[in-house]
Structures are given as C-alpha cells and as structure tokens.
Queue: 2 jobs
Job 1
Amino acid sequence: MNINIRPVTIEDYDKIYALWCSTEQSKRALNPVDDSREGIERYLKRNPSTCFLAYLNDEPQKIVGVILTGHDGRRGIIHHMCVHPEHRRLGIAGMLVEKAEEALKNEGISKVFGLVFKDNDPANAFWEQQGYTLRTNLNYRNKSLNENVPRGE
C-alpha cells in the first residue's frame, strides 16, 4: 500500500471530520466550536505549514490519516492526530508525526507536546514509542471562554 502525505487545506475539512468521527477516541476530543469548519479554517490560517494528511496513492480522495500541529513561536503542540481504524499499524501515524516534527523544526521550534486521554492505552503506547515522555510534574488546566465549548472532565 502506497501512502502519500500532503498539507491540509480547508477543502479537506469534511473528509477530515468524517475521519475523526470514525473512532470514539477522536470523536470525544472534538468540540462544536474549535473543530467546526470555521474553527479549523482559523487554525490552518495560523498554522499553514504544520498540518498534514495521509491518503492512499491509488485513492487520493480517501484520507486515511491526519495530524493538526501548530505552535506559538516557542512550543509546538499536536492538537489532533487520527488514523482510520482500517489503516492502522501500517506506519501512517509515524509518518505523520515525522512530517509534523520536521515542519516544526523548520519553523525554529525545538520542543513539542501533545495531549492524550489517560485511558487511551494504544495512543499512549504509540506516543511513548515516538519518544514522547509522560510529564507527571504538571497539571493540565483549561477554561472555556465560549459557553458552547465543553469544559472537559
């Protein structure tokens, strides 16, 4: 199976959203504001060269993986990464991470982090294999500034 990777554009939104909805772990990370078409368009305008998708060489319209990565000029963050359940364990996630990390390095970013649900054992194992260590000396805190964005657990 030949996999290609290219930058994400807003025209990919419907297919990316469908991909996110293909798995419960990704679906539960979505919120109706930031992950709306408008929210993703804002994100891509701010991070035009650090977001990528994977597609099958013989089916360029079929998106099988996506990674949304950005930075604030100091630290990189992986906001969303998903590979379609039917195409896992083929190295697609690793390819996406490598491409995103390379893009961040090209923009002068030297450290990146990501958030993973504690109970997502396969994802946590994947990130450990990619060299991402678990920080136990920090608390992650958030505050919703929009009443339509869930607070989280």
Job 2
Amino acid sequence: MEEDIHIIRYFSSLITVSNGKVVKVTKPNISYCPLSSFLYGGIKNPPGLSTALLKDEIKKVIKGKITRFGFCTKDRMLWKDEAVIPYGASELLAYGLKNKAIDSAVIVCDGAGTVITAVPQIVQGIGARMHTVLKTSHIPEVAIKLRRYSCHILDEKGSINQMSGVSEAAKKGYKRIAVTVSAFGEESLKNIRALEGRYGISLTILAVCTTGIKEGRLIEIEKYADIVWACHSKNIRNRLSKKAIKILSKVSPVYMLTEKGKKLVSGYNPNIYKIREEARRS
C-alpha cells in the first residue's frame, strides 16, 4: 500500500493528515492569527486555555476542510470561481491570470505536489482554504482531475519543487510565470529568480507562510520576492512596510516589493464584506 502522508502548516502548527484523518498536531507557538480570525471567528489562546485545547481547535479546522472540501483525499474539490480570502495568494494569482498579467502559475496542491496551470478557477480551487503544504503524497484521483483541466503535475510522487515547476513551465512555452514559494521552507529564492535569465521569462515570486522565519530567510525574501505576505511575522512588518511600493490589507498585510508585483494586483478590489459573510456562513 502506498504511503498517504500530508504535512501542512497552520496557526504555526505542523499538522499531519493520513487516510483522511488528522493524526498529529504539533504545539503552536502563536496565540492569534488575523486570517484565522477572519475565516473561523478566531482561534485564540486566551489566558487559561491549555495547549491541548488549542491543538484541538486547530484539529477541528483541518477536519472540517477534509469533510467539506476533500482536503488531502481523493474527493478534493479543485474548481472555484469565488474568492475566499480577500488578499490571498490564490485570489491574486487567479486575478492575474484573468487579466493576462501572467500566463501561468506554479503552485502546490495537496495530493499532487507542484502544479502548473493557466486556469484561474483551478488556482482558486486549489488555494481556497488550503494552508501551506510542506509534504504530500500522490493521490491518483486528484492528478486525474487536474489533468482534465489541462494542468501539468511535476511527477507521480507528489514532489514539491517550485524551481523545477518554473523550469517546466518555461519549457512548455509560458513566458509570464508566477510562483508561490513557502518562506518557511528551504527552497532558494535566489536560484528560482535566476531562472528568469536562463529561460528568458518574466517571473513573479510570491513568498507565503512567513510566520517564524529567521533573519537570513527574511533578507533573501526582501531581495528576491515580488509579493510577500506578513502572516504573523513582526519582523516582516517592521522590515517590509518601509520598502513596499504598495500594501494590500491592514489586517494581514501583503507587500508589493516590485513593479512586477504591483502590476499583478493592479485594479484588484475584492468585496471584503461579501467574502467575510460567505466564509463565516460556510
């Protein structure tokens, strides 16, 4: 029997999902997350709330995603038109694809690994309610669905390698490529950026999941990323708020560090109140 292990990061915890069940939740090191508050009414850690209860709240959120959206299972929902997070990475990428600012996106999907797509509804469907995926196992049914929508999967192992994903996208003829890179991960933004010159492409790098990153990683992100999410990183806020040429959202800031990043979101104006109401109702 093939391994079925998916490791995601949410609320600073590492959560392991296997065979449709949450099997492990590590101890979180934050007490509040703006995005969690927006979507789920707030997972907070007030005085007196034990670590065990906080971990149980985190587990409930992930279990809900498995039940409702097929997260990390063969029943994964992959197509969505509506925005879920006002200034989420998938929303900005879907907007960029619709408005021809980019011609493809290299993203990560649970059950598939690195995925190349030019379909905005797939970008939105994959990213809606999904947290940073650090490891995933190949799920054949998910791969079949993605290929039906003309998506390309890096391999049949569920590999997550955004540098290889960008290379494959360039080889397929895409010229204006956007890629999400986990700031909490170890992939080199410098090496990914170097692909621009190697293939003669325009590359927009989106750095996500910045909570808890170290100084060296922050310096790398500042130098090579185009768009950066603040998440729960005080260092990101202190450092990039001074450098950003445009900032989206005050609750959980998104920093445009380059003209390329600014161009991707030009004209983007989500209906925040509608999104909030639909998120909480669901």
